[in-house]
C-alpha cells in the first residue's frame, strides 16, 4: 500500500486550471461581441432601403440617358434605345424591372415594392414607388432636355 501512496500522478494545478478558464472565457466574450456586431450589421443592411433607392435611381437615370420616350401605358414606361424598344415598370411581383416592349426578358432593378405608379406630363415622367416597409420615393425624369 505504501507504493500506491508514493506514486505521484501528473495533474493540472489550480493555477493552470484558472488560466485556462480565463483564456476560454475571454475567447467566448470576443466571439459573442463579434456575433452581436455582425447581427447588427446584417439587420442594418437589410433595413437600409435608402442605399437601394440611390443605386436604383442612378441605374434608371443611366438607362434612360440615351433613350427616346415612346409612351406611358398600363403603368409601364416605354422607350426606344438605339432602335430597341424597352419597357420599365412593376408587373405582378414585388420588383421594378426592365424588359423588352413585350414584357420578355427580366432585369430586376429594385425589390420590396408593394405598388408603383408611372405618369406622364408632356415629356416629364414621374415614377412613384411604394415599398413594403412604408417607404415612398418619387423619381422624375425629363425627356425634353436631351441634346
Overview of this protein structure:
The protein has 147 residues and is α+β, with helices and mostly antiparallel strands. It has a domain at 49-145. 38% of the residues lie in helices and 35% in strands. The chain is built from 3 helices and 8 strands. It has helices at residues 2-6, 14-47, 49-65, and strands at 68-73, 76-81, 84-90, 96-100, 107-110, 113-121, 124-131, 136-142. Strand 3 and strand 4 (96-100) form a beta hairpin. The radius of gyration is 30 Å and the shape is rod-shaped. InterPro entries: ComGF (IPR016977), N_methyl_site (IPR012902). It holds the Pfam family N_methyl.
What brief labels describe this structure?
147 residues; 5-stranded antiparallel β-sheet; alpha+beta; single chain; rod-shaped; 38% helix; 3-stranded antiparallel β-sheet; ComGF
Write a concise synopsis of the structure shown.
The protein is α+β, with helices and mostly antiparallel strands. It is built from three helices and eight strands. The chain has a domain at 49-145.
Fold blueprint:
Elements: H1 2-6, H2 14-47, H3 49-65, E1 68-73, E2 76-81, E3 84-90, E4 96-100, E5 107-110, E6 113-121, E7 124-131, E8 136-142
Antiparallel strand pairs: 1-2, 2-3, 3-4, 4-5, 6-7, 7-8
